[in-house]
Amino acid sequence: MLEIITEQGSARTGKLKINNKEVETPFFMPVVTKGAAKFINNKELEQIGSDAIICNGFILSVKPGLNVLRKMGGIHKFINYKGAVFTDSGGFQMYSDKLLEKTTDEGIHFKEPFHGSKLLITPEKDMEMQNTIGSDAAMCLDDMPLYGSDKKRIQESVLKTIKWAKRCKKHHDEIKDKQLLFGIIQGGTYPDLREFCARGIVALDFDGYAFGGLAIGEPPEETFKAVEAAIKFVPKEKPRYLMGVGTPELILEAVSMGVDCFDSRYPTMTARNGTMFTGKGQINIDKKEFEYDEKPIDEECECFTCKNFTRAYLHHLTRLNEPTGHTLKTIHNVSWMQEFMRRIRESIKQGKFEEYKKRFLEKFT
RNA sequence: CCCUGCUUAGCUUAACGGCAGAGCAGUCGGCUGUAAACCGACCAGUCCCAGUUCGACUCUGGGAGCAGGGA
């Protein structure tokens, strides 16, 4: 479970122990939806300091399917990754109108991603799925409303999310396994609904708590308002997970509010599109100004890409849309992000988090 | 010197005589629990000069440039 080592204000650093894996908090999980992040393999993810990743239980249960996962000895062995594996429930895939058919009280009716046939995911099935996959931490099936939904819809989502969480918890308890189960708190950007949902979810006593349905287009102040409204009701000794976040700025702010855990496709997706993290802010390597630039992406970065290749070369590869370029860019962004998390943890341990945050934000424009 | 063909945005090209469009390149944004090496915006054009016509990238005449062929 979570062992808190140092606290500074609401920010804390600690160790999350799951299934004899140990992950220092706060940490960032690269998104490994189908068992592979794009343009970077799982060994590379390990090597550059990703102690945890998140896969998608729903997608994996469709392909390669649960039989393969079972026969291949579970997710860790199958994808050859030693760190902690979280799985997402598939609730987020409601966000894709290509996948979503409808939701009922029973569960989510999906269109099967590869053939389009209909597929009902219930909380119970979802628990079986994620447990068969063998992840270290599973997520409850939640009802994820689109950004901009009216309050009535968010209210409905909160009630459904709590109801499903109850069924998830009950079924997960029956399975009897070391796998952790996280409850997800919805509520859009309405503080009262966030509070209501947090109380309802926390009452069910999960191993960890996630804030869902955020960072989907709302302004950052709204994101934080929502987290703030909910996080007060989450027990201190339980890990808190802000799903889908994100950018360095958002992570810093969330850490100072007491969040321990993040995941986002942001570093890998933006890398492919040319956006590179540096200590001075983001740059787009696709721009002509880097054509003759002999510097590494970030002069203070120690990653494989920065130690070996110039901006000019990465610019060139990007222009030609070369897969190797995408790989090198992805390695940089993920490495940079993991180094960023290390520095956050270090600064909390030294009681200098607020100074670190301030200094970072001054330079990161 | 003669004959033939061609000329539309930086490049490759659309448009019965009826609103000059597109792809690539370029510039600028965006990307946040990934069926997304993506999405959006902007920039920019009829080789030149006359003529016919309500109206010309399109038809006629002249010129320039390029390519091929013949002396």
One letter per element, helices H and strands E, the order comes to: EEEEHEHHEEEEHEHEHEHEHEHEEHHHH
Tally the structural domains.
2
Distance between the termini: 36 Å
What is the share of helical residues?
A: 40-55%
Count of distinct strands: 16
The fraction of residues in strands falls at 15-25%
Shape: globular
Textual characterization of the structure:
This protein has 365 residues and is an alpha/beta fold. The protein folds into two domains: 2-264, TIM Barrel; 265-365, no CATH class. It is 42% helix and 20% strand. The strands form four sheets. It has an eight-stranded parallel beta sheet with strand order 4-14-13-12-11-10-6-5. It has a three-stranded antiparallel beta sheet with strand order 1-2-3. Strands 7-8-9 form a three-stranded antiparallel beta sheet. Helix 8 (248-256) runs antiparallel to helix 13 (353-363). The relative contact order is 0.13. The mean pLDDT is 95. It binds one RNA strand of 71 nucleotides through residues 29, 31-34, 37-39, 54, 56, 59, 86, 88-89, 91-93, 95-96, 98-99, 113-114, 139, 142, 144, 184, 210, 212-217, 241-247, 250, 262-273, 275, 287-288, 318-319, 321-323, 325-326.
